[in-house]
Protein backbone atom coordinates (compact mmCIF):
# COMPACT_ATOMS: atom_id res chain seq x y z
CA UNK A 1 0.00 0.00 0.00
CA UNK A 2 2.86 2.39 0.95
CA UNK A 3 4.49 1.82 -2.46
CA UNK A 4 1.42 3.31 -4.18
CA UNK A 5 1.54 6.58 -2.18
CA UNK A 6 3.52 9.47 -3.67
CA UNK A 7 6.60 10.66 -1.70
CA UNK A 8 4.92 14.02 -1.03
CA UNK A 9 1.76 12.44 0.42
CA UNK A 10 3.80 9.94 2.40
CA UNK A 11 5.85 12.82 3.88
CA UNK A 12 2.78 14.90 4.76
CA UNK A 13 1.14 11.94 6.50
CA UNK A 14 4.21 11.08 8.57
CA UNK A 15 6.04 14.38 9.20
CA UNK A 16 6.53 15.57 12.76
CA UNK A 17 5.48 19.11 11.73
CA UNK A 18 2.11 19.50 13.39
CA UNK A 19 -1.06 19.98 11.34
CA UNK A 20 0.01 18.60 7.95
CA UNK A 21 -1.30 15.11 8.67
CA UNK A 22 -4.88 16.35 9.06
CA UNK A 23 -4.76 17.97 5.61
CA UNK A 24 -3.68 14.79 3.79
CA UNK A 25 -5.51 12.07 5.71
CA UNK A 26 -8.21 10.19 3.79
CA UNK A 27 -11.79 10.50 5.03
CA UNK A 28 -11.47 14.12 6.23
CA UNK A 29 -14.23 16.62 5.40
CA UNK A 30 -13.16 19.53 3.21
CA UNK A 31 -13.93 22.00 6.03
CA UNK A 32 -11.35 20.23 8.23
CA UNK A 33 -8.76 20.44 5.49
CA UNK A 34 -9.39 24.19 5.02
CA UNK A 35 -9.22 24.75 8.80
CA UNK A 36 -5.86 22.97 9.15
CA UNK A 37 -4.49 24.63 6.02
CA UNK A 38 -5.25 28.09 7.47
CA UNK A 39 -3.72 27.07 10.82
CA UNK A 40 -0.55 25.80 9.14
CA UNK A 41 -0.16 28.93 7.00
CA UNK A 42 -0.57 31.21 10.02
CA UNK A 43 1.86 29.14 12.11
CA UNK A 44 4.54 29.12 9.40
CA UNK A 45 4.08 32.86 8.79
CA UNK A 46 4.44 33.63 12.51
CA UNK A 47 7.52 31.41 12.70
CA UNK A 48 9.11 33.18 9.73
CA UNK A 49 8.43 36.63 11.18
CA UNK A 50 9.87 35.72 14.59
CA UNK A 51 12.96 34.11 13.05
CA UNK A 52 13.50 37.19 10.87
CA UNK A 53 13.15 39.46 13.89
CA UNK A 54 15.63 37.33 15.87
CA UNK A 55 18.12 37.43 13.01
CA UNK A 56 17.87 41.22 12.63
CA UNK A 57 18.32 41.71 16.38
CA UNK A 58 21.33 39.39 16.30
CA UNK A 59 22.88 41.35 13.42
CA UNK A 60 22.10 44.89 14.60
CA UNK A 61 21.52 44.81 18.37
CA UNK A 62 23.89 42.13 19.64
CA UNK A 63 25.80 44.54 21.90
CA UNK A 64 24.67 46.78 24.73
CA UNK A 65 26.49 49.42 26.77
CA UNK A 66 26.03 49.75 30.51
CA UNK A 67 27.73 51.93 33.10
CA UNK A 68 29.73 49.96 35.65
CA UNK A 69 30.25 51.56 39.08
CA UNK A 70 31.93 48.74 41.02
CA UNK A 71 35.17 50.73 41.11
CA UNK A 72 36.81 49.42 44.31
CA UNK A 73 38.75 46.64 42.54
CA UNK A 74 39.63 48.48 39.34
CA UNK A 75 43.14 48.96 37.98
CA UNK A 76 43.15 52.06 35.79
CA UNK A 77 45.88 52.34 33.14
CA UNK A 78 47.53 55.71 32.65
CA UNK A 79 47.23 57.13 29.10
CA UNK A 80 49.95 56.61 26.54
CA UNK A 81 52.25 59.64 26.30
CA UNK A 82 54.00 60.41 23.00
CA UNK A 83 56.58 63.19 22.74
CA UNK A 84 57.26 64.52 19.22
CA UNK A 85 59.90 67.17 18.65
CA UNK A 86 58.40 70.16 16.78
CA UNK A 87 61.44 72.39 16.15
CA UNK A 88 65.24 72.38 16.46
CA UNK A 89 66.67 75.51 14.87
CA UNK A 90 70.18 74.93 16.19
CA UNK A 91 70.46 71.50 14.62
CA UNK A 92 68.86 72.71 11.36
CA UNK A 93 71.54 75.41 11.08
CA UNK A 94 74.31 72.84 11.65
CA UNK A 95 72.97 70.46 9.00
CA UNK A 96 72.40 73.16 6.38
CA UNK A 97 75.93 74.49 6.95
CA UNK A 98 77.31 70.98 6.47
CA UNK A 99 75.20 70.34 3.37
CA UNK A 100 75.19 73.71 1.59
CA UNK A 101 78.21 75.46 3.08
CA UNK A 102 78.42 78.69 5.07
CA UNK A 103 77.22 81.18 4.02
CA UNK A 104 74.24 79.87 2.02
CA UNK A 105 70.75 80.93 1.06
CA UNK A 106 68.94 80.88 4.41
CA UNK A 107 65.68 80.02 2.71
CA UNK A 108 67.21 76.55 2.61
CA UNK A 109 66.92 76.45 6.41
CA UNK A 110 63.17 76.92 6.08
CA UNK A 111 63.04 74.19 3.44
CA UNK A 112 64.85 71.76 5.75
CA UNK A 113 62.49 72.69 8.60
CA UNK A 114 59.46 72.00 6.39
CA UNK A 115 60.85 68.63 5.35
CA UNK A 116 61.90 67.53 8.84
CA UNK A 117 58.66 68.61 10.53
CA UNK A 118 56.38 68.02 7.56
CA UNK A 119 52.65 68.46 8.23
CA UNK A 120 51.18 68.28 4.74
CA UNK A 121 52.21 71.64 3.25
CA UNK A 122 55.52 72.69 1.66
CA UNK A 123 55.35 76.45 1.09
CA UNK A 124 59.07 77.31 1.02
CA UNK A 125 60.08 74.04 -0.64
CA UNK A 126 57.71 74.51 -3.57
CA UNK A 127 58.39 78.24 -3.90
CA UNK A 128 62.13 77.75 -4.27
CA UNK A 129 62.44 74.19 -5.61
CA UNK A 130 59.00 73.37 -6.97
CA UNK A 131 58.04 72.74 -10.60
CA UNK A 132 56.64 76.28 -10.88
CA UNK A 133 59.76 77.98 -9.47
CA UNK A 134 61.39 80.21 -12.12
CA UNK A 135 64.94 79.56 -10.94
CA UNK A 136 65.15 76.35 -8.90
CA UNK A 137 68.03 76.33 -6.44
CA UNK A 138 70.97 74.14 -7.38
CA UNK A 139 71.04 72.87 -3.78
CA UNK A 140 67.46 71.56 -3.69
CA UNK A 141 68.10 67.91 -4.40
CA UNK A 142 71.47 67.27 -2.79
CA UNK A 143 69.95 64.79 -0.31
CA UNK A 144 66.86 62.66 0.09
CA UNK A 145 64.09 64.32 2.06
CA UNK A 146 63.99 61.55 4.67
CA UNK A 147 67.74 61.94 5.36
CA UNK A 148 67.19 65.44 6.71
CA UNK A 149 64.73 64.10 9.27
CA UNK A 150 67.20 61.48 10.51
CA UNK A 151 70.03 64.01 10.87
CA UNK A 152 68.10 66.92 12.39
CA UNK A 153 65.80 65.28 14.94
CA UNK A 154 67.06 64.82 18.48
CA UNK A 155 67.48 61.33 19.86
CA UNK A 156 65.87 60.16 23.08
CA UNK A 157 68.70 61.20 25.40
CA UNK A 158 68.67 64.69 23.85
CA UNK A 159 64.90 65.10 24.27
CA UNK A 160 64.52 63.96 27.90
CA UNK A 161 66.35 65.18 30.98
CA UNK A 162 64.44 63.45 33.79
CA UNK A 163 61.40 61.19 34.20
CA UNK A 164 59.44 60.23 37.30
CA UNK A 165 56.38 58.07 37.87
CA UNK A 166 54.68 58.68 41.22
CA UNK A 167 57.88 60.34 42.53
CA UNK A 168 59.97 57.31 41.50
CA UNK A 169 62.62 58.30 38.98
CA UNK A 170 63.26 55.98 36.03
CA UNK A 171 65.49 55.86 32.95
CA UNK A 172 63.55 57.77 30.29
CA UNK A 173 65.08 56.08 27.27
CA UNK A 174 64.65 52.59 28.71
CA UNK A 175 60.87 53.04 28.81
CA UNK A 176 60.18 55.61 26.07
CA UNK A 177 60.32 53.73 22.76
CA UNK A 178 60.55 55.10 19.24
CA UNK A 179 57.30 55.19 17.31
CA UNK A 180 57.04 56.23 13.66
CA UNK A 181 54.30 58.74 13.01
CA UNK A 182 53.09 61.01 10.22
CA UNK A 183 55.15 63.78 11.83
CA UNK A 184 58.33 61.72 12.06
CA UNK A 185 59.87 59.73 14.90
CA UNK A 186 58.29 60.26 18.32
CA UNK A 187 58.97 58.71 21.73
CA UNK A 188 56.10 56.93 23.48
CA UNK A 189 55.57 55.33 26.87
CA UNK A 190 52.75 52.96 27.86
CA UNK A 191 51.91 52.35 24.18
CA UNK A 192 51.36 48.85 22.79
CA UNK A 193 52.66 50.10 19.43
CA UNK A 194 56.21 50.10 20.85
CA UNK A 195 55.84 47.06 23.14
CA UNK A 196 57.71 44.73 20.77
CA UNK A 197 60.63 47.10 20.08
CA UNK A 198 62.90 46.00 22.95
CA UNK A 199 61.48 48.75 25.15
CA UNK A 200 60.92 48.07 28.83
CA UNK A 201 57.32 48.16 30.02
CA UNK A 202 56.56 50.39 33.01
CA UNK A 203 53.50 49.46 35.06
CA UNK A 204 51.57 52.74 35.11
CA UNK A 205 48.52 51.56 37.02
CA UNK A 206 46.35 53.55 39.41
CA UNK A 207 44.04 51.94 41.94
CA UNK A 208 42.59 52.42 45.39
CA UNK A 209 45.83 51.21 47.01
CA UNK A 210 48.31 53.26 44.96
CA UNK A 211 46.12 56.32 44.42
CA UNK A 212 45.93 58.49 41.26
CA UNK A 213 49.07 58.27 39.13
CA UNK A 214 51.30 61.17 38.12
CA UNK A 215 54.01 61.43 35.44
CA UNK A 216 56.77 64.05 35.64
CA UNK A 217 58.94 64.88 32.58
CA UNK A 218 61.71 67.36 31.91
CA UNK A 219 61.93 67.99 28.16
CA UNK A 220 64.54 69.85 26.14
CA UNK A 221 63.51 72.09 23.26
CA UNK A 222 60.14 72.40 21.55
CA UNK A 223 57.81 69.44 21.38
CA UNK A 224 54.21 68.33 20.99
CA UNK A 225 53.01 65.90 23.64
CA UNK A 226 50.15 63.57 22.68
CA UNK A 227 47.97 62.13 25.46
CA UNK A 228 46.27 59.06 23.99
CA UNK A 229 44.93 55.58 24.67
CA UNK A 230 47.50 52.78 24.76
CA UNK A 231 46.60 51.65 21.22
CA UNK A 232 46.41 55.12 19.60
CA UNK A 233 49.18 56.85 17.62
CA UNK A 234 50.04 60.53 17.07
CA UNK A 235 48.57 61.80 13.82
CA UNK A 236 47.76 64.97 11.91
CA UNK A 237 44.11 64.68 12.94
CA UNK A 238 44.58 64.07 16.67
CA UNK A 239 42.16 66.25 18.65
CA UNK A 240 43.76 69.51 19.83
CA UNK A 241 42.56 68.78 23.38
CA UNK A 242 44.80 65.69 23.37
CA UNK A 243 47.92 67.62 22.31
CA UNK A 244 50.09 69.93 24.43
CA UNK A 245 52.58 72.27 22.77
CA UNK A 246 55.68 72.37 24.98
CA UNK A 247 58.22 75.23 24.97
CA UNK A 248 61.26 75.84 27.22
CA UNK A 249 61.10 77.98 30.40
CA UNK A 250 57.54 76.89 31.21
CA UNK A 251 56.18 74.40 33.76
CA UNK A 252 52.98 72.67 32.58
CA UNK A 253 50.66 70.71 34.85
CA UNK A 254 47.55 69.04 33.43
CA UNK A 255 44.96 67.17 35.49
CA UNK A 256 43.09 64.42 33.68
CA UNK A 257 40.00 62.27 34.18
CA UNK A 258 39.66 58.89 32.47
CA UNK A 259 36.76 56.66 31.57
CA UNK A 260 37.69 53.25 30.24
CA UNK A 261 35.67 50.71 28.24
CA UNK A 262 35.59 47.16 29.57
CA UNK A 263 34.49 44.28 27.36
CA UNK A 264 32.73 41.08 28.31
CA UNK A 265 34.90 38.11 27.14
CA UNK A 266 32.13 36.97 24.78
CA UNK A 267 32.34 40.27 22.86
CA UNK A 268 35.30 38.93 20.88
CA UNK A 269 33.13 36.08 19.55
CA UNK A 270 30.75 38.61 18.00
CA UNK A 271 31.62 39.69 14.45
CA UNK A 272 33.30 43.05 13.84
CA UNK A 273 30.31 44.25 11.82
CA UNK A 274 27.95 43.49 14.69
CA UNK A 275 29.96 45.05 17.52
CA UNK A 276 31.11 47.98 15.34
CA UNK A 277 34.63 48.09 16.77
CA UNK A 278 37.95 46.28 16.44
CA UNK A 279 40.24 44.83 19.06
CA UNK A 280 43.93 45.70 18.90
CA UNK A 281 44.96 42.33 17.44
CA UNK A 282 42.34 42.51 14.65
CA UNK A 283 44.44 44.83 12.52
CA UNK A 284 44.17 44.84 8.74
CA UNK A 285 46.66 47.73 8.44
CA UNK A 286 50.21 47.80 7.16
CA UNK A 287 51.14 51.17 8.70
CA UNK A 288 50.97 49.80 12.27
CA UNK A 289 50.91 46.35 13.81
CA UNK A 290 48.02 46.99 16.22
CA UNK A 291 44.68 48.44 15.29
CA UNK A 292 43.33 51.75 16.55
CA UNK A 293 41.14 54.45 15.08
CA UNK A 294 44.07 56.85 14.64
CA UNK A 295 46.25 54.12 13.08
CA UNK A 296 43.42 53.38 10.63
CA UNK A 297 43.22 57.09 9.71
CA UNK A 298 46.96 57.13 9.00
CA UNK A 299 46.53 54.09 6.76
CA UNK A 300 43.59 55.77 5.04
CA UNK A 301 45.62 58.92 4.40
CA UNK A 302 48.55 56.91 3.07
CA UNK A 303 46.27 55.04 0.67
CA UNK A 304 44.68 58.31 -0.47
CA UNK A 305 48.12 59.85 -1.13
CA UNK A 306 49.14 56.83 -3.18
CA UNK A 307 45.86 56.94 -5.09
CA UNK A 308 45.85 60.68 -5.85
CA UNK A 309 49.56 61.45 -6.17
CA UNK A 310 51.14 58.05 -6.76
CA UNK A 311 53.42 58.45 -3.71
CA UNK A 312 53.35 59.06 0.05
CA UNK A 313 55.28 61.71 1.94
CA UNK A 314 58.70 60.78 3.32
CA UNK A 315 57.63 60.63 7.00
CA UNK A 316 54.74 58.21 6.46
CA UNK A 317 55.36 55.14 8.65
CA UNK A 318 56.25 51.72 7.30
CA UNK A 319 56.56 52.42 3.59
CA UNK A 320 59.51 51.67 1.28
CA UNK A 321 61.72 54.55 0.19
CA UNK A 322 60.80 53.88 -3.44
CA UNK A 323 57.26 55.19 -2.76
CA UNK A 324 58.42 58.47 -1.13
CA UNK A 325 57.31 61.61 -2.93
CA UNK A 326 59.84 63.67 -4.86
CA UNK A 327 59.37 67.41 -5.39
CA UNK A 328 56.58 66.79 -7.91
CA UNK A 329 54.86 64.53 -5.39
CA UNK A 330 55.12 67.20 -2.67
CA UNK A 331 53.52 69.65 -5.06
CA UNK A 332 50.65 67.21 -5.56
CA UNK A 333 50.24 66.71 -1.79
CA UNK A 334 50.12 70.47 -1.21
CA UNK A 335 47.65 70.95 -4.04
CA UNK A 336 45.32 68.35 -2.53
CA UNK A 337 45.98 69.29 1.09
CA UNK A 338 42.34 69.61 2.13
CA UNK A 339 41.39 66.36 0.41
CA UNK A 340 44.17 64.47 2.21
CA UNK A 341 44.51 66.07 5.64
CA UNK A 342 41.00 67.03 6.74
CA UNK A 343 38.71 64.20 7.82
CA UNK A 344 35.02 64.38 7.04
CA UNK A 345 31.99 62.06 7.38
CA UNK A 346 30.79 60.38 4.20
CA UNK A 347 27.58 62.47 4.12
CA UNK A 348 29.32 65.88 4.32
CA UNK A 349 29.50 68.05 1.19
CA UNK A 350 32.72 69.87 2.12
CA UNK A 351 36.16 68.87 0.83
CA UNK A 352 37.90 66.28 2.94
CA UNK A 353 39.02 62.69 3.36
CA UNK A 354 36.44 59.98 4.09
CA UNK A 355 37.92 57.15 6.16
CA UNK A 356 35.80 54.11 6.93
CA UNK A 357 37.49 53.47 10.29
CA UNK A 358 35.87 51.75 13.24
CA UNK A 359 36.76 52.78 16.80
CA UNK A 360 38.89 50.57 18.98
CA UNK A 361 36.99 48.31 21.38
CA UNK A 362 39.32 49.39 24.20
CA UNK A 363 39.51 53.14 23.60
CA UNK A 364 39.37 55.54 26.53
CA UNK A 365 37.54 58.79 27.14
CA UNK A 366 39.89 61.55 28.31
CA UNK A 367 38.77 64.80 29.90
CA UNK A 368 40.98 67.76 30.87
CA UNK A 369 39.99 68.91 34.35
CA UNK A 370 42.51 71.71 34.79
CA UNK A 371 45.62 73.16 33.14
CA UNK A 372 48.26 75.06 35.14
CA UNK A 373 51.16 76.87 33.50
CA UNK A 374 53.85 79.17 34.90
CA UNK A 375 57.33 80.34 33.95
CA UNK A 376 60.59 78.85 35.24
CA UNK A 377 64.19 80.08 34.86
CA UNK A 378 65.49 76.78 33.45
CA UNK A 379 66.15 76.41 29.71
CA UNK A 380 63.96 73.31 29.48
CA UNK A 381 60.26 72.55 29.95
CA UNK A 382 58.65 70.67 32.82
CA UNK A 383 55.51 68.66 32.17
CA UNK A 384 53.39 67.03 34.86
CA UNK A 385 50.40 64.86 33.97
CA UNK A 386 48.22 63.69 36.84
CA UNK A 387 44.98 61.84 37.29
CA UNK A 388 42.71 64.28 39.09
CA UNK A 389 40.91 61.39 40.78
CA UNK A 390 40.38 57.67 40.44
CA UNK A 391 37.47 56.86 38.09
CA UNK A 392 34.21 55.84 39.74
CA UNK A 393 32.48 54.62 36.60
CA UNK A 394 33.35 53.06 33.28
CA UNK A 395 31.50 51.76 30.26
CA UNK A 396 31.02 48.05 29.77
CA UNK A 397 30.23 46.37 26.47
CA UNK A 398 28.04 43.29 26.96
CA UNK A 399 26.72 40.66 24.56
CA UNK A 400 22.93 40.52 24.79
CA UNK A 401 22.33 38.37 21.70
CA UNK A 402 25.01 35.81 21.00
CA UNK A 403 24.97 32.83 18.66
CA UNK A 404 23.51 30.59 21.35
CA UNK A 405 20.74 33.13 21.98
CA UNK A 406 19.97 33.15 18.26
CA UNK A 407 19.72 29.33 18.15
CA UNK A 408 17.52 29.25 21.26
CA UNK A 409 15.25 31.99 19.89
CA UNK A 410 14.83 30.33 16.50
CA UNK A 411 14.33 26.89 18.08
CA UNK A 412 11.74 28.26 20.49
CA UNK A 413 9.76 29.91 17.69
CA UNK A 414 9.81 26.72 15.61
CA UNK A 415 8.77 24.55 18.55
CA UNK A 416 6.01 26.94 19.67
CA UNK A 417 4.26 27.33 16.31
CA UNK A 418 5.22 24.13 14.47
CA UNK A 419 5.92 21.62 17.24
CA UNK A 420 9.14 20.78 15.44
CA UNK A 421 12.79 20.09 16.23
CA UNK A 422 15.95 19.98 14.15
CA UNK A 423 15.12 16.38 13.18
CA UNK A 424 11.87 17.60 11.63
CA UNK A 425 13.93 19.36 8.97
CA UNK A 426 16.11 16.26 8.56
CA UNK A 427 12.92 14.38 7.68
CA UNK A 428 12.57 16.51 4.52
CA UNK A 429 15.93 15.24 3.29
CA UNK A 430 15.05 11.71 4.33
CA UNK A 431 11.63 11.48 2.64
CA UNK A 432 12.58 13.25 -0.60
CA UNK A 433 16.18 12.12 -1.06
CA UNK A 434 17.37 9.28 1.16
CA UNK A 435 14.17 7.19 1.10
CA UNK A 436 13.61 7.30 -2.73
CA UNK A 437 17.24 6.33 -3.32
CA UNK A 438 17.11 3.45 -0.82
CA UNK A 439 13.77 2.26 -2.27
CA UNK A 440 15.27 2.33 -5.74
CA UNK A 441 18.26 0.27 -4.58
CA UNK A 442 15.99 -2.27 -2.84
CA UNK A 443 13.77 -2.56 -5.93
CA UNK A 444 16.81 -3.29 -8.11
CA UNK A 445 18.02 -5.94 -5.67
CA UNK A 446 14.57 -7.60 -5.64
CA UNK A 447 14.44 -7.57 -9.44
CA UNK A 448 17.91 -9.12 -9.61
CA UNK A 449 16.93 -11.87 -7.16
CA UNK A 450 13.73 -12.52 -9.11
CA UNK A 451 15.63 -12.91 -12.41
CA UNK A 452 18.10 -15.29 -10.75
CA UNK A 453 15.33 -17.63 -9.53
CA UNK A 454 13.63 -17.55 -12.93
CA UNK A 455 16.86 -18.66 -14.66
CA UNK A 456 17.22 -21.56 -12.21
CA UNK A 457 13.60 -22.61 -12.80
CA UNK A 458 14.07 -22.74 -16.59
CA UNK A 459 17.18 -24.90 -16.25
CA UNK A 460 15.28 -27.38 -14.10
CA UNK A 461 17.62 -26.75 -11.23
CA UNK A 462 15.11 -25.21 -8.87
CA UNK A 463 14.98 -27.43 -5.76
CA UNK A 464 11.77 -27.18 -3.83
CA UNK A 465 11.83 -27.76 -0.11
CA UNK A 466 10.61 -31.22 0.97
CA UNK A 467 7.39 -31.26 2.99
CA UNK A 468 7.46 -33.95 5.62
| Class by alpha and beta content | alpha+beta
Overall 3D form: elongated
Helix content range = 25-40%
Number of strands: 16
Mean pLDDT: 87
What kind of sheet is the major sheet? 6 strands, mixed
Lateral strand order in the biggest sheet? 5-4-9-15-12-14
Which parts are unreliable, with pLDDT below 50 for 5 consecutive residues or more?
A: none
- Radius of gyration equals 37 Å
Query: Roughly what fraction of the amino acids lie in strands?
Result: 15-25%
What is the terminal-to-terminal distance?
Answer: 35 Å
Helix count from the secondary structure assignment: 15
Describe this structure in words.
It is a single chain. This protein is α+β, with helices and mostly antiparallel strands and 468 residues long. Helices cover 38% and strands 20% of the residues. The protein has 15 helices and 16 strands. β4 and β5 (168-170) form a beta hairpin. The longest helix has 37 residues, at 422-458. It is elongated, with a radius of gyration of 37 Å.
